[in-house]
Design brief:
Length: about 170
C-alpha cells in the first residue's frame, strides 16, 4: 500500500515564510522597521492558521514553524524600534538647549582667544612688502578705524601710528 502525504496548510506556510522574511528585512532597517509590525502580524496569523490546519491533518509543520518564528522575531525587532523612537522623541526637547550651550561655550572661547591674539597683516605687491603687527591693547582703536572704513567715513590721516610695528621692504 502506498502512503499518501497530506499537505494541508503548506501553502499558508510558504506564504507565512515569505512574508516573515520580508518583514525581518524591513524590521532591521532603521526608521523603516517601524512599519514592519503590520506584515509581521500577517506572517504570524498565516503561520498560526497553517499550523492548526496541519495539526488536524497530521501534515508536516517545518515551514510553518519557521515562518512563525521569523515573524515573531521580526515583530519584536520592529517593536524595539518603536520604543527607541519614542525614547528619542522624549529626549529631543532637551537637545536644542544642550547644543545651544555647547555653541555658546565655543563662541565664548573663540572670542576670548581673538581678544588675546596678536594681529599681523602682510601685503605684498610685486617687490614691495608691507607688514603691520599689533597686539590686543590696540584692538579698540583698530576696531573703530575698521568701523569707519566700513561706513565709508574717512579717517583723519592715511598713516599708521608709530605705536604699530611696520616693516617695509
Amino acid at each position: 500500500m502506498e502512503e499518501v502525504k497530506n499537505n494541508k496548510g503548506q501553502n499558508l506556510g510558504i506564504a507565512a515564510l515569505i512574508v516573515a522574511i520580508i518583514t525581518f528585512v524591513l524590521a532591521v532597517i532603521p526608521c523603516i522597521g517601524l512599519i514592519a509590525v503590520i506584515p509581521g502580524i500577517i506572517a504570524i496569523i498565516l503561520a498560526s492558521v497553517g499550523i492548526s490546519q496541519a495539526a488536524r491533518n497530521n501534515s508536516p509543520r517545518g515551514v510553518l514553524i519557521a515562518g512563525l518564528i521569523i515573524g515573531i522575531i521580526a515583530v519584536l525587532i520592529s517593536f524595539s524600534q518603536i520604543f527607541v523612537g519614542i525614547r528619542i522623541a522624549n529626549n529631543a526637547g532637551k537637545w536644542p538647549t544642550d547644543i545651544q550651550n555647547v555653541i555658546d561655550d565655543v563662541h565664548d572661547n573663540v572670542m576670548k582667544n581673538l581678544e588675546d591674539a596678536n594681529i599681523s597683516i602682510k601685503v605684498e605687491n610685486g617687490e614691495d612688502k608691507v607688514e603691520i603687527n599689533a597686539n590686543s591693547s590696540q584692538k579698540k582703536k583698530m576696531e573703530k578705524t575698521l568701523e569707519n572704513l566700513e561706513e565709508g567715513n574717512k579717517t583723519s590721516a592715511d598713516t599708521v601710528s608709530t605705536n604699530d610695528t611696520i616693516n617695509k621692504k
